[in-house]
Amino acid sequence: MDMPYCTITSDYHSLTREAVVKLLEQRDAELKNKEAELKIKDAELERKSRRILELERMVFGRRSEKRLPESASGWTGALFDEQWAKEGSLARVEALPIIKEIKQQAGQRRSSRRASRPSRKGRAYASYVPENIERQVTEIYPEGYDAERMVIIGHGRSEHLCL
Q1: Contact indicator for 102, 93 with CB cutoff of 8 Å
Q2: Full domain range(s) for residue 65
Q3: Quick one: pLDDT at residue 140?
C-alpha cells in the first residue's frame, strides 16, 4: 500500500511547484467535465425512465384503449414533454421496441397466472352443496335425435336436487 503512494509522491517531488499546480488544475478540470457528463447522462436516464412509465400506463393502465393514439404520428405531442416532441421520429423508433417488450412481458405474466390458477370445470354445484343429497339428472338431446346417425359433440345436462 505504501509503495504506490511513495511513487506518486516521488513523481511530484521531481516537479516544480508551478508544474504540480498546473497538473492539479488539469485534473480538477477533468473531474468537472466528467461530473458534467454524468449529470447529463443521469438526466437523460431519468427522462427515458419517465417515458417508459408513461408508455406502460398508456398501454396497460385503466381505459388504455381510450388513451392510445389512432396512428403512429399520435405518439408524439401534448402527452409528453417538449423534449419528446422535438425528437419526433426518433422517439417513435425508440418506443416501439419498448412497447413490444412490455407486451411480451405482460403476456408471460398472464400465462403464468393462468397456469397457477385452479380450474373450475367439473363442479356442477358450488362447494356448499353436500354430496349426500340426491340429484336427479336429465340428459337433454335435440329434437329428432337419432343415436345411430348422429355423433354427440357436446352434452347438455340438467341437474335438480331432490329434497
Answers
A1: no
A2: 2-116
A3: 83
